[in-house]
Amino acid sequence: MIVEMRIYHCAPGRLPALQERFTNTTLGFFEKYGIEQIGFWTTLIGPSNHALTYLLKWESLAEREAKWNAFQADQEWIAKRAASEAEKAIVERIENHFLTPTAFSKLR
Hints:
Pfam families: NIPSNAP (PF07978). By secondary structure, this protein is of the alpha+beta class. It has 3 helices and 4 strands, in the order βαββααβ.
């Protein structure tokens, strides 16, 4: 198992728009492409409260590449993402980490 941690750093005041996009659009595409989420979090205490962090579960990097690339190439997704940012950009930058569990990890 591989866990992908993605951190979306939003433009000030745009976190609600990102949360709305995930709720009403992105999660449907994740389901369509078999992208399995572990969970989503916002920052309670930290350097910025304009971030959304989430974890995705993959069996392999090959699975991730196939499913993520199909999702990213979906023309309906591209159009809906663009529409959500028509007036103002939502995400300033994205951090992406691929994590593997240790032998002593409860989640493997």
